From TrEMBL:
<protein>
    <recommendedName>
        <fullName>Rhomboid family intramembrane serine protease</fullName>
    </recommendedName>
</protein>
<dbReference type="GO" id="GO:0016020">
    <property type="term" value="C:membrane"/>
</dbReference>
<dbReference type="InterPro" id="IPR035952">
    <property type="entry name" value="Rhomboid-like_sf"/>
</dbReference>
<feature type="transmembrane region" description="Helical">
    <location>
        <begin position="131"/>
        <end position="150"/>
    </location>
</feature>
<dbReference type="GO" id="GO:0004252">
    <property type="term" value="F:serine-type endopeptidase activity"/>
</dbReference>
<keyword id="KW-1133">Transmembrane helix</keyword>
<keyword id="KW-0812">Transmembrane</keyword>
<dbReference type="InterPro" id="IPR050925">
    <property type="entry name" value="Rhomboid_protease_S54"/>
</dbReference>
<feature type="transmembrane region" description="Helical">
    <location>
        <begin position="162"/>
        <end position="186"/>
    </location>
</feature>
<dbReference type="GO" id="GO:0051082">
    <property type="term" value="F:unfolded protein binding"/>
</dbReference>
<dbReference type="Pfam" id="PF01556">
    <property type="entry name" value="DnaJ_C"/>
</dbReference>
<dbReference type="InterPro" id="IPR008971">
    <property type="entry name" value="HSP40/DnaJ_pept-bd"/>
</dbReference>
<dbReference type="InterPro" id="IPR022764">
    <property type="entry name" value="Peptidase_S54_rhomboid_dom"/>
</dbReference>
<keyword id="KW-0472">Membrane</keyword>
<dbReference type="Pfam" id="PF01694">
    <property type="entry name" value="Rhomboid"/>
</dbReference>
<feature type="domain" description="Chaperone DnaJ C-terminal">
    <location>
        <begin position="254"/>
        <end position="326"/>
    </location>
</feature>
<feature type="transmembrane region" description="Helical">
    <location>
        <begin position="71"/>
        <end position="93"/>
    </location>
</feature>
Length: 327
């Protein structure tokens, strides 16, 4: 299952989320500039190697600063492009909403704290391991744990490839994230968990930390005001690029109707959206161009996206534009 987007729009621009993504990408570009030998040394130095803290012979090769710094730096390293891509995509989907709720300042502390706890959780269960642990997965698992509690009834548009055919399904967030957490538990308990080279317990520790830390949030100074010091003051100008359209129509009419919501900025400047139209098992993705100067109430006609009539001909989908600021 590949998550594509959630259905909860963030009100504010997720500044810290985007900065974290940029930092991870920049560090990865730095990684691939090294040769194989230098890269291995780089990962051992800045990754989390549990034996560095339990073996005097190994710890002697590192300075006290390196020992402390690696507890944080490991969460910005990645083992390959796909590893980076999956982590950053998950952070992009879930991070904006959690940052929106916590505020940018607290979200940064929350993210780094979950990453640290995930590393310590792995360390506690693998104290003698000489295998470096790298990746933002533990910190992002914490974000997912917070999302699990904050938005359990949100829906995650998910790509499920079946026999090379892409199917798009909306899955409740509590089910999607609950299933993800269950898979981490099963993999961690499996006999081959250590052989896979994946820090499953770091994922579990991060997820649990995210849920626990969220419970402490009400004890912190309130930063939820409109002009709160800790919150990004940049309001989003655009709605989500990918939207789910659920057509509706009366009786057996082949033509169907729905509302497309866009922001005032998008109405003035124009926008390009990708819409998912769920028709049973025939869900498809379409590209929709919204021209500049679009007015409220304008109707966009998408030919052939309606129901089949008695003759087997396709009706049309009519989208009525609704201009609003949804946050």
């Amino acid at each position: 299952m590949i998550p594509l987007r959630d259905t909860i729009p963030a009100r504010y621009y997720p500044l810290v989320t985007h900065v974290l993504i940029a930092v991870n990408v920049l560090v990865f570009l730095s990684q691939i500039s090294y040769g194989p030998r230098e890269l291995q040394q780089f990962i051992v130095t800045y990754g989390l190697v549990p034996a560095r803290y339990t073996s005097g012979e190994i710890s002697a090769y590192f300075t006290p600063f390196q020992q402390v710094f690696s507890l944080f730096s490991f969460m910005f390293l990645h083992g390959g492009f796909l590893h980076l891509l999956f982590n950053m995509w998950s952070l992009y989907i879930f991070g904006d909403n959690v940052e929106d709720r916590l505020g940018s300042f607290y979200f940064l502390i929350f993210y780094v704290g979950c990453g640290l706890v995930s590393g310590l959780f792995h360390f506690a269960l693998n104290a003698q391991s000489t295998t470096p642990v790298i990746g933002a997965s533990g910190a992002i698992a914490g974000v997912m744990g917070a999302y699990f509690l904050l938005y359990p009834h949100s829906r995650i548009l998910t790509l499920i490839p079946i026999l090379f055919i892409p199917f798009f399904v909306e899955i409740p967030a509590f089910f999607f994230l609950g299933l993800w957490f269950l898979m981490q538990l099963l993999n961690a308990a499996g006999a081959q968990a250590q052989q896979a080279g994946i820090a499953w317990w770091a994922h579990i520790g991060g997820f649990v930390c995210g849920m626990a830390a969220l419970k402490l949030f009400p004890l912190l100074p309130d930063n939820r005001g409109e002009n709160g010091y800790h919150r990004s003051s940049i309001r989003r100008k655009k709605s989500d690029h990918l939207q789910v359209i659920r057509p509706r129509g009366g009786g057996s009419e082949p033509d169907v109707h729905e509302t497309l919501r866009i922001t005032p900025y998008e109405a003035a400047a124009g926008a390009t959206k990708r819409i998912n139209v769920p028709w049973g098992f025939h869900n498809r993705m379409y590209r929709l161009k919204i021209p500049p100067g679009t007015r409220d109430g304008k109707v966009l006609r998408l030919k052939g996206l309606g129901r089949d009539d008695d003759s087997g001909n396709k009706g049309d989908l009519y989208l009525t534009v609704k201009i609003e600021q949804p946050w």
